[in-house]
Amino acid sequence: MTKQILFIISLAISLGVFAWSVKRLWAFFKLTKSSYPIKNIGARISHTMDVAFGQTKIFRKPVIGLMHALVFWGFLVITLGSIEIVIDGVFGLERSFAFTGWFYDFVMASGDVFALLIIVFIKAFSLRRSILRIKRFTGVEMSSKSYWDAQIALSFIGLLMLSLLAFNVGYISNHPIGYEGVYPVSAAIVNLVNLDLGWLQEPGWWIHILLIFVFANYLPYSKHFHVFLSVPNVFLANLEPLTKYPNLESITKEVKLMLDPEAAYDESEEVARFGVKDVEDVSWKNYMDSLACTQCGRCTDVCPANITGKLLSPRKIFVDLRKRMDEKGPIAIKGEDDGKSLLRDYITEEELWACTTCNACAQECPIDISHPNLIMDMRRYLVMEEAAAPAELNTMFTNIENNGAPWQFSPEDRLKWTEG
Amino acid sequence: MTDKKLHVPVMADLAAKGEKPEYLYWVGCAGAFDDRYQKVARAFAKILNHLELSYAVLGKEESCTGDAAKRAGNEMLFQMQAMQNIEVLNAYEVDKIICTCPHCYNTLKNEYPELGGNYNVINYTEFLDEMIQDGKLKLENNPFKGESITYHDPCYLGRGNKIYDAPRNVVKAVFGDVKELKRSRSFGLCCGAGGAQMFKEAEKGNKEVNIERTEEIIERKVDKVASACPFCMTMLTDGIKLKNKESELQNLDVAEIIEKALEL
Fold this sequence. Notes:
A: mainly alpha; elongated; B: 264 residues; alpha/beta; three-stranded parallel sheet; 9% strand; globular
């Protein structure tokens, strides 16, 4: 009974803190603009099965991809066990899902094996970050805070798995018959050690579940929030061709008006701003992308501008967006302004103009973030609100306006190529 | 041979005679004005003539699709170009459009429909692939015998619109084989010219993107590199020139390979 009460109190605190974090983020989301409509649920489900659960984009780097996929699939199985732990804890039960029979045994057995695998891979991931100098884990946006955030998240996961194994080992020690097949790894440990490890069951259980509660509340402030957001982010992904850049509807109205002066002008519709200058101008999807990004740097790794030493790093665009929202969000909610903006205070014009819109970043992103579209949204602000394009681009604009071609040639000469 | 005037039907002339061609060939600004890419437009028109295809071009009535303006942030200019072009295209009741330029292709196919321009937009590599498979283009000669070739994926064709196989099939139909670059298909490295970079100097860095790509191509030790985009062509040709490899390595457009194979 005491255990039950203690558990319910921990759960309530954990849920309460989490709800507070969600409320804070929800208020930030409310500052953002609308995005594309979420239609085609069937296509979205199959896309999610493919990219999220099938990990197809992760596998574009086969070795590390397989390790990530195994950790992810392991997490899915182990999460079923975590749900069981919560139900057991609240109602004072033990193994409340056991009634599902062979399915339960299968889930438990794979969870037990995955726990060991995940410990090994997590250690490898951690060492990879601390010892190997992997280029995509560096960059201006990768501060020491990012480094420690990654290491803390990895430690959490490692400890979660250790405590799970400790619980399993303890459970088998206390129930010596019939569980070898259900907990293959733990049973092997028990046989190997040949000591009474039954005392591990209770502390293993408590440490495991309390770590889950703490980790879940750490995540909304970590780049590892992707544990929660990556699957929904893939489900809500832009399914259009990568190079289809949406037309601005507010411009369509203006252009129609220009081409047809007879058309009635609806003054009630006030356009706030063309393009993106600060966090209030981005769409909710852009902001969600920034929260879901786990800073893996696969985008930056393939960016032609970044490869050739330019300032642009596609990852930085989204890291900056999240940082700026943390700064501006609370101020904007109060209706105030700090005189700073995402553009220039965080992202420089030089970065924005270096993008070739090749979409290698978007192609690579395991959770389907579209970096070029946000970069072009910021160019829209520069060009249409400030006329701040590089001079050569202004020349190109003038040529198109005057000659209908980006170069200075007369439209009269459009058939010269046929003359040879 | 190249100085001969080509017979290319113009939409307005056909309309005056009350005729309506099956296809519109969208030449694009590079095809119309860029010295090097004019040769590709000529090559493709010769192939269309060889096929005796019912087609026409817009000629003076064609105007920039607005791709570069849009990607440089000038949505206003893009939509004005789009609306003008759509007005012309709809007036001629155009249905099928073939593009050589992947940037025009992407814009016409993906971005015009919401502005009222709904067409069957076809990329020329898909068109050529189909004509070869249907046996309408018979490629019996290989003027490049003994030469090896690689293919550079244009971003707006490959990653953008998932057209990877058609251009390779066309090249293979003549060369028999395509050697793949280290970064190919969806992993392909940009030439450096997309997103309006074509019209400006690159930002400060330690290398030009086209040099990075050209070095990769040179490393592959091939005689030719095929591409399917006017911007890629400019960037790769410049890269090869800067690396002083013009005598060993030439950049050809997919259409030029077919033109040569058909001895047009």
